[in-house]
Amino acid sequence: MVVVDDDVTSTTITTSVSTTTTTTATTTTPTATAVKINIKCKTEMDRKLLVAAIEGDIEYLDSIRRSKTLRTTVCSSGCTLLHWAAGSNQVNNVNIIVEYKKSYGRTPLHYACRNGSLEAVQYLCLSPYCHAIPDIKAKQGVTPFQLAIWQNHLQVCQFLTTSTVGIVPSIDFNDFGCGAIHWIGIAPKHRANFTTTTTTTNENNNEYEDENNNNENDNGHDLLPLIKWLSKQDGINFFIKQRQGHTALHKAVWGGHMSIVKYLREEIGMFDDQQDDAGNFAASLADMANTTRHTKIGVYLRQHCSRKRYNSLQILGLTASMSTKSTMSESTLALGKNEIRKAYLKKARQLHPDR
Fold first, then answer.
1. Where are the ANK repeats (predicted)?
2. What are phi and psi of 164, to 5 degrees?
3. Could you say which of 194, 200, 296, 353 has the lowest number of CB atoms within 10 Å?
């Protein structure tokens, strides 16, 4: 039982605390002991929150889950809601406060994974005091693993997929149907190119990626270890589309990562022959982006990722036999109009009825 007086600044709470009394050598019987707790707090809202934490009012605390007061409210002694809930043995309330989601419904584990804080990730997942849920979903179904992929934190991804934690990349999707193969394609430029990307400071002293920086090495090369690791995970399918019809190639092109585009073509065997729901091929997205990086990607796509062009070259005998990954040799990729014309004339002479 909890009794609260009407004084906003000084709240007296009487609560029942279970104790045990031995009745036999093997049996204990719980009895209730009334304990008075004098809580001093500043505002009516603080009073309500503290009482809810002590009483176990799950509905009230859950209704303000997004409010920062869930973490900032303290009594005059500096004790938070978490202190009072834990001290009152209100385990469900403790869980609500610990799993407090501040931004976009993201938990501490989301932020630790996003920022590559491996030790924090390990502690949150493995510590008996945290009980973080590894595959917990935030707003729009975003998981900690997806954020780790997006920010190119290979070690965090490797840890999350261990048997101890149990994340399975092939079934980890958000509400838009985007999985790891899509997230890696839209990795921020500075996370895709550790050693070459420069940042610029604007008038508000905020750093941002300089899209006018045309360093030819800003091609996403630092994403290669992650995508190579990802390709070895059980059940990973680079050809699936998300709900807007985007493939991994669409995402990599929009992200401006030439290294990933080439990997998808030369190692995975992808062609730019799939349209999204708006009718766009990946090359169309490169045109829309209209930067130096994207222009180069658009040229590459039209020369080397066209299935029609590849099939035509194959008929002309200009491609090596397709391997299991449908790769093309460097000499084939470098073919120009003159070589193609010569091969066409040779083939025409061989097949022409008047030869």
1. 104-124, 244-264
2. -65, -40
3. 353
